[in-house]
Design a protein that fits this description.
By secondary structure, the protein is of the alpha+beta class. It is 38% helix and 20% strand. A 5-stranded mixed sheet has the order 5-6-1-7-8. Strand 5 (98-102) and strand 6 (105-109) form a beta hairpin. The longest helix is centred in the middle third of the chain and has 21 residues, at 260-280. It binds a DNA duplex through helix 3, helix 8, helix 10, strand 9 and strand 12. Belongs to the DNA polymerase type-Y family.
Length: 423
DNA sequence: TCTGGGGTCCTAGGACCC
DNA sequence: TCTGGGGTCCTAGGACCC
């Protein structure tokens, strides 16, 4: 039986989340900023129509946004994560086979669905909107890449009213022709530029290219895109949570950092967060990477950035072990005389917590029997009473480097004190 | 003053081994 | 004048995604 996939994508997700709790903002332009209120990362349709570009530095468009009455928010990931979970839960109710692809997107396997894909899509869209306030678009196609394409078409073409089934279209090639080459899933700016130069300006023209040429110039990833556009499924459908292979925690500082002390505090803090994520997916890690960088936009200042990898003697998820190693690494990386903008840590060599290889030669101080309950107790406290209820002293108290989020909306759905008040 | 953060996969080329 | 060849593993860097 031919496959049928739906891609459900939340429209302007972060902006829609802000709006879900602020009905006064319906019809008004809304933008959401990145960490540190750095740049624009989400825009409502009204803001897009005003020409606010994605990724625009906030300081450059701030006065324009104010002048035109745009509602501006710092990012509120607690809210977005929770809203995402609600949307995904609804999808799972309607369709047992769901692959959560990102915070605002999921694929559903509709193969063999009764009553037609479009009707299914309409029902899903109406339900998600009614239950969460989030508008979604639904695209359906015989491969994931075509479902993506259909989704874009549904979103951009008014007459689709949010749902488009590629398979039921009388003229699917026109949709391919309509899709600009850079908007094809899997074709990034580099390849798009080169293809355009050759006259391959849309998805239909790309589909006509020779397999061998595409494989040679764009590797197997490009070949998969080609075949998927031809209707051959190449990309797997992955249900259930997939454990990450690397875990990153890195952030720009709220203020420039010049001292080693601040750098070590931030390193401890980010490492704490990374290892929390590690335990959450029930994994252990064996390699640490630390990195730092100066502000690459300040052309006049001396620039320096570097990363360092540190193998641990044993795989673990014990936070103090990671903090010690990461700070030692950061001390080696740090050079006086530079003004730093950002640092980060990454964990790799991840394995499941149970059934991992043990290094028989290494002394395992990180695995005294008491360590695991300790970490568990820390996690429990922080889950119950909020992040950083229990923290590590190495992260410091002052935290002068902490990021700025001056326009964050209340965490309506995850913190009792910030719940929406009526009346 | 002010420019995000977190991921995956592929390939080429070097190191190393026999 | 004039290099051996072939395999595996690892890493850095590139390209892509949201």
């Amino acid at each position: 039986m031919p496959k049928s996939y739906a891609l459900i994508d939340c429209n302007n997700f972060y902006a829609s989340c802000e709006r879900a709790f602020r009905p006064d903002l319906v019809g008004r332009p809304v933008v959401v900023l990145s960490n540190n209120d750095g740049c624009v990362i989400a825009r409502s349709n009204e803001a897009k129509d005003m020409g606010v570009p994605m990724g625009a530095p906030y300081y450059k468009c701030r006065s324009m946004l104010e002048r035109r009455g745009v509602a501006v928010f710092s990012s509120n990931y607690a809210l977005y994560g929770d809203m995402s979970a609600r949307v995904m839960k609804i999808l799972t109710r309607f369709c047992p086979e769901v692959e959560i692809y990102s915070i605002d997107e999921a694929f559903c396997d509709l193969t063999g669905i009764q009553g037609g894909a479009e009707a299914f899509g309409r029902k899903l869209r109406a339900t998600v909107h009614a239950w969460t306030g989030i508008p979604v678009s639904v695209g359906v196609g015989p491969t994931k890449t075509l479902a993506k394409l259909a989704n874009r078409f549904a979103k951009k073409q008014e007459r689709c009213r949010g749902v488009f089934d590629f398979g039921a279209s009388p003229a699917p090639d026109l949709v391919l022709q309509w899709t600009e080459i850079g908007d094809v899933w899997g074709i990034g700016p580099r390849h798009a530029k080169r293809l355009r130069k050759m006259g391959v300006t849309n998805a239909l023209k790309f589909r006509e290219l020779k397999r061998n040429w595409v494989k040679k110039k764009m590797t197997v990833a490009g070949l998969q895109t080609l075949l998927e556009l031809r209707g051959w499924p190449c990309l797997d459908f992955a249900m259930g949570p997939v454990g990450k292979k690397t875990i990153v925690s890195s952030r720009s500082f709220g203020h420039p950092v010049t001292s080693l002390e601040d750098m070590l505090e931030a390193t401890a803090k980010y490492m704490t967060r990374a290892v929390e994520k590690l335990r959450k997916q029930r994994s252990v890690a064996s390699i640490i990477h630390v990195s730092l960088e100066t502000n690459r936009f300040k052309l006049g200042e001396p620039q320096y950035s570097d990363t360092l990898s540190i193998p641990l003697a044993i795989s673990t998820s014990h936070t103090p072990t990671f903090i010690r190693a990461a700070q030692a690494g950061m001390e080696r990386l740090f050079k006086e005389g530079y003004t730093y903008k950002k640092c980060g840590v990454m964990l790799s060599g991840l394995e499941p917590e149970h059934g991992r290889w043990l290094n028989l030669l290494a002394l395992p101080p990180a695995h005294r029997p008491s360590d695991k309950p300790l970490m568990q107790a820390v996690d429990n406290c922080n889950t119950k009473w909020g992040r950083d209820t229990v923290a590590f002293a190495a992260s410091g108290i002052r935290q002068g480097w902490k990021m700025k989020r001056e326009m964050r909306s209340p965490r309506y759905t995850t913190v009792w004190d910030e719940i929406l008040q009526v009346g």
